[in-house]
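Help wanted!
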Amino acid sequence: MTRKIAVIGAGLIGRAWALVFARAGCEVRLWDLDPNVRARALDELAEACRLSGEDASALAQVTICADMATAVDGVEWVQENGPEKLEIKRQIYADLDRMTAAHTILASSSSALLASHFAEGLPGRARIIVAHPVNPPHVIPVIELCPGPDTAPEVMERAEVLMRAVAQVPVRLSREIDGFVLNRLQAVLLAESLRLIEQGIVTPRGLDDTITHGLGRRWALLGPMATINLNAPGGVKDYLDRYGPTMARLSDSSARGEAFTERAAEIIAADLPGPAQVPELSRRRDARLAELGRFLRDNNE
Amino acid sequence: MTRKIAVIGAGLIGRAWALVFARAGCEVRLWDLDPNVRARALDELAEACRLSGEDASALAQVTICADMATAVDGVEWVQENGPEKLEIKRQIYADLDRMTAAHTILASSSSALLASHFAEGLPGRARIIVAHPVNPPHVIPVIELCPGPDTAPEVMERAEVLMRAVAQVPVRLSREIDGFVLNRLQAVLLAESLRLIEQGIVTPRGLDDTITHGLGRRWALLGPMATINLNAPGGVKDYLDRYGPTMARLSDSSARGEAFTERAAEIIAADLPGPAQVPELSRRRDARLAELGRFLRDNNE
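Answered by r_m:
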């Protein structure tokens, strides 16, 4: 039986989700509050397919709906991509909870708000989760699945199964934490990077080269745990015995929030392509990420 | 004219350096204190070529030398890969300084010691630098070039030119800092990862998936600065205006050295392949890194 999915919000993230579900054979109902966004959505989806070198025939699976109630009627999963404003999210979830059947999972793409913020007190809070993607999810597969305090364990199980069925890579968090995992890791790396740049130790492009031609290349194949597991003859415990004290010393002197300065922003902006190039560079990024994704899939372990 | 290079130390890193220089057409003199290591070096180099899918004919450029003085005679660059022990390094650099001509650059692969630690007081300290590779440098191209306080600027210029000539990617640091850039970035990410794992928020494999299927995939193509430059319509300054406060908050609550606990090591070791699999997994890592390197070279901007 064809899976029925609703995607709420048809901006960049919502459209990428629609593509993820459609290319996996789901029937996708896409809705946005803004009629202009709805009107353009299918053309923009076709353009996203062209850029990422994907078969646009999957878009026949996508129906643009004129209202939210129609979009969510009878679906097994709602992927919500509304604004990151608590009052708006609360209203959306109150509506979704009322409009959908008890077996429907309500998943938010939120990166800043936690389910406990917007699901609190709702009758259906056991079926509300965060399914946090990376921009854009049709070319970057990881999805952080984060329960709220009242989310039912079987909802998390079903969420994991669905994400795998649509060829994404779910990562389950056991409980809520500010920033989830991915943005916490990104934040510490950015803080240290900004300070090294502001101190003039390295240029912004030099810092980027350190990652793209160094750590990032390794991390595209092996995560940081698998990496250190291979960097000492006796595996990860041997690594942490040998290098843990050094790594601890380096992290003790690492930068924190104070590194996010205006001056660091100025230095970085002066070394990188300007805002006028952002749209074209973003399209190239997505095309290259899609290529890399195919390479990694074909060269998987 | 063929460039003449000496590589001192024929362990994993020294051999990888020998391969980097040889495949770029340099004449390489390889020496190790241990005669058994010297005797095996060419066979091990041939095996490294086989694993990384490279043409082993470059190995004809490599000569194994029976003593250090012969290896370094008349070379333009010495790449030293001795043990990370200060007294040993001091002795090696005193010897190298005496044995080599004034135009020869003396470069250390050291990750833990700085040039100021082992070049201090030597007549040739202006030509001594750190050229820090990532394990293993024949499949990961970044090289951190770090001057000591007395290193001449033209030595850094020549070092950068040579690294580009042998197809590595040099990153220049303006001055010494503990851990250089790469290991400082790795350390902050490891600290936060270990704490998230120890707290049970995410499993070690889940954490690795977050990177390999998320941030690492992006970072193999775009560094963290280029990434944030494309994650807001107005570029990096717009990004830092919008998300800087969130990233600052997350890094303010990030883990530091206290995260490197025995318990975290136990949890990680229990979730990953054991030490017996390290050699085979390392070989597969190198083969896959070589493949990925070719893919990235062919799909470069």
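OP: Thanks! One thing I noticed: Residues 195 and 251 of chain A are 13 Å apart (CA to CA).
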